[in-house]
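Annual report, structural modelling task.

Input specification for the iron/sulfur cluster complex:
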Amino acid sequence: MNTLSANHIPGPSRIVWQVTAPGGGNRPGLLALKDTLPVMSDISDAFSPPPRLILAGHPGHRHDFDLLLWSAVRRGLSVIVAPDPNATGISAAKVEDWQFTGVDGLEVRIDSPVAKPSRAEQFENAMLQADAATHLGLALHVTTTITRAGVPGLERLGDLVRVLGTTEWLLDFDSPETDLSAQEAEEVLTWLSTWAREAPCRVTVYGAPQWVRILDWAGVHWPGAVVRDGHELCFIDAFGHVYPGPRMRVLAGNLHRRAFSRIYLDAPVFEAIRDTSRLEGRCGVCGYTELCGGSRARALRMTGRITADDPGCLRPPDYSGIA
Ligand code: SF4
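The model returned the following structure:
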C-alpha cells in the first residue's frame, strides 16, 4: 500500500527543467507558459522547503523564457538559469536582465581549465557568463563532466573554480562522455574529498553517490554532498515528461495529466528508487544503502535492472558495515 504523502517525505532538493525542445520551435505537446504556471505553484506549495528550479535549455529558443523565470520567482521558487553550453546570445546584459527578474544564480559548464580548440567558443561563453554572474552578485554554479582525459587537469580546474568565485562546483560522473573505471572514479572522489575540505565553495557530486562512503571513511559528513536521481534530483523535459534524472529516462508521468508532486510521490519508478530494501548485490548489504544506494541510472543502463548493484562503485564485495 502506498502511504507516501507530501507530509511524510521531503521533496527533491533540485529539479532540472529543460524548457526548450531539441532544435527549438513550438512543437506539439510543448509546455506553454500557461501550462507551466500550475506546475510551478504545485512545486512551490507541495514540498517544504521548495526544491530549487534549474531552468535549462536555449533561452533564445523561447520568446517567453524571461517570463518563465519571472513566473517561477513570483511563486517563491529559487531559480537558477542553466543555458545550454551551445546557446548563443547570452551577453552580460542578458545575465543582468535575469538578475533583475529575480533569479538566484547561473549555471555554466566548464570541463577544463583552459579552452580546448574544439570547444573554444563554449569556454569563452562560459567565462563571460561566469564573470557577469559573480559581478552581479548571482550565485555561480559550475558543472564539470568527469572524463579520463580531463582528470589530469582537475587540480588546475579546481584553481579556476576558486578564482571565479564559484558558489557550487557540481561534478558529473555519469554523463555519456564519462569513461572512468570504478577504480579511477574512486581515486578522483578520494582526491575530491581532500580538495573539498579547503574549498571556498560547496562541492556536489552527481552520478557517483559512493562519495558519501568515501567522505565517511575520511571522517567527513556533508549533507547534500551528492544528488541522486529520484531522490534529491528530478528531471522534466520541455513536453512535461517527468523522469528521475537527466540520465535516467524512465518515464514517471506527464505534467499535462498529473501534478508534479503526485508523480514524485507515487509513480512506480520513484517508489522503486526509494525502496532500498529491494537493492541487490553489494548495494543491498552495504552500510551506505540509505545514504548512497548506488547510481540507479548506471545500474539500470548496465544491467537492465533498476535495483541492481552499481557497477561503478569499487566497494569490496565482502564489506557490509559503516567504518
Ligand atoms: S556498494 Fe552501493 S551503496 Fe555501497 S557505497 Fe557502493 S554504490 Fe553505495
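The chain is about 35% helix and 15% strand.
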